[in-house]
Sequence to fold (309 residues):
Amino acid sequence: MRLAFLGTPEAAVPSLRALVGSGHDVAMVITRPDRKRGRGGQVTPSPVKACAQELGLTIGHRLSDLDDLNVERGVVVAYGRLIPAEVLKRIPMLNVHFSLLPRWRGAAPVERAILAGDVETGVSIMTLDEDLDTGPVHLEKRVEIDAKSLSSLLGELAAIGAHALTEVLDSPELLARPRPQRGEVTFADKLTKEDRHLNPTFSAAQLLRIVQLGQAFAFVGDRRLLVESAAAFRMGQALTVTSERGVAAERASDGVTAGSIALRFGRVLMGAADGAISLDRVRPESAKPMSATSWWSGARFGSDFVQWT
Fold:
């Protein structure tokens, strides 16, 4: 099938590769313009553009580049802009959307599914219409979220979505008979910096969900602390430790209250509203990532706990 492809981030690359690999004729790739990325501020292409260059495909940066293009369909994967109705009237388009529609329509479906504590998410191959993610669904694939990081979950969804996309395009039945969306509609607004700000009034489960997103942070005093990984910890659970005299004893994680961080039995515990989480990897402000225990030892707070906000 002769196609146009619209996409920008790394999550769209597997779909582009799958289309070319399965023999479809990708006549044009539309992606967002090059921009400054990284600390050096070097202008670099989007991941989709870099892939298209590698594959020797024609590249455009404007929707108007589709005006004189003769294609049967378009494929949209995280392009980053709404497609105008006049374009959709001329070129019917499939969208690889990373959610179980109609749950989490919008810009950040995977992030919102994690924050909401959803048990599962998935991929919906849908036909685009002029409204936001309201079109009928050709195929749906489900994925358990578990404790997967955002980047890991996105990678899994991108791979599954690429396979589902080619399955739809290669099946006249799936392509011709999409079903209307059914269920409760929720919207996935784009995340702000505050969505990644850990808060001592949150439950331990919610703190861990924020850590799953990546770039989670809190303030210890006036210094920002990034929390790169953490694990669940049940307050009051018995821990077996060995004293200086070699005697095994059981102690509980007493004294780690909401808004405090303390070292208890070799673990750095962050107190939440209903318990605590165990910090694993952190990155202090203006420093490299390190284990939480290394950070605690080097900080020399002068007491057995410190407050965080």
